[in-house]
Amino acid sequence: MTRWGDPHFMYHSTIAQIAAKTVLRISENVLLSYNVSKFSTALQSMLSDLKGEITTTGIALNVSPLEAAIIRFTTAARDLMAIEEALKPGEWGGEQEAIVNERLGKFERGFIGDGLPGRVFYKHLIYAPGVETGYAPTTLTEVVRVGNVEEATMYVGITAAAIDEVAKLFEG
């Protein structure tokens, strides 16, 4: 490091400062800083991309369970974010804050499955590294990747069920 990487340790100091400020900022937040409304917008975009891919490949795949789950998720996410935005700083620490934090804290875990076929170490149903893309992510992971309609239909159901469960969690 002293010869080639960072002779005066300026980058090390900068990274340490950034890390410390990030930890401090996170620790000062009373509410978890997830914006699940943005995630619902991303889900809608992923569904649109999936429909485009289905049209391009010409396969007959029914994605209506996925559409219904994403609509429910979008509504539930919007309602939860409305509760969060309505909280005034003086109300923090109360029951509403605990409800929002509990629901947001379980948000990402709802999309974890048993593992993707042939790649059991990847468990996220919404995004994971692609088989042929290296570390570049694919979205709606197994629905997009699978070649046959039966397996794709199965993953539409699995993914829709996961999205639906997270929506139920948001609804309380």
UniProtKB/TrEMBL annotation:
Natural source organism: Tuber borchii (White truffle)
Protein name: Transferrin receptor-like protein
Species classification: Eukaryota, Fungi, Dikarya, Ascomycota, Pezizomycotina
Domain Transferrin receptor-like dimerisation: 61-170
Keyword vocabulary terms for this entry: Receptor
Ubl conjugation found in the keyword field: no
Residue ranges that the Swiss-Prot or TrEMBL entry lists as coiled coil: none
Pfam families: TFR_dimer
